[in-house]
Amino acid sequence: PGAEVDLAGIAKADGGKTVAEVFAEKDQLGGQTVVVRGKVVKTNANIMGKNWLHVRDGSGAEGANDLTVTTAAELPKVGDTVVVTGPVTLNKDFGMGYAYDVIVEDAEVTIEQPGS
């Protein structure tokens, strides 16, 4: 589990989805680009040549509330509010125990400044 990050007051991105909606609509969203706003709860730098982050927005039940994202962009800090834009990939298995029902790969990640 990620760090304890306050998820209160996170507004859905314009034209975007909540984390819960991405999981709920995954079958329709596979291969489609989504936009999700949330807070970073965990980061891992430079694994398999990518930066990894886990984004939550307070929506979704356990198991459908933490969106894994890979990016070549600068890695945000835990607690940063980000807007993630990228394609949804389903049933991705990288091997070595890294398997994801839903993942957003090669995303654009925009770090929002507080109060913006």
Principal-axes shape call: globular
Order of helices and strands: HHEEEEEE
**Low-confidence stretches at least 5 residues in length (pLDDT < 50)?**
none
Instruction: Work out the radius of gyration.
Output: 13 Å
Number of strands: 6
Tally of separate helices: 2
Q: What is the percent of helical residues?
A: under 10%
- Major β-sheet, in short? 5 strands, mixed, barrel
Short overview:
With 116 residues, the protein is mainly β. Helices cover 9% and strands 44% of the residues.
Describe the protein in words.
- The chain is mostly beta strands and 116 residues long.
- The chain has two helices and six strands.
- It has a five-stranded mixed barrel.
- β1 and β2 form a beta hairpin.
- The protein is globular and about 35 Å long.
- It starts with 18 loop residues before the first helix and ends with a strand.
- The relative contact order is 0.24.
- The mean pLDDT is 93.
Topology:
Layout: H1 19-24, H2 26-29, E1 33-47, E2 50-56, E3 67-71, E4 81-93, E5 99-104, E6 108-112
Parallel strand pairs: 3-5
Antiparallel strand pairs: 1-2, 1-4, 2-3, 4-5, 4-6
Descriptive terms for the model:
single chain, 116 residues, mainly beta, five-stranded mixed β-barrel, 6 strands, globular
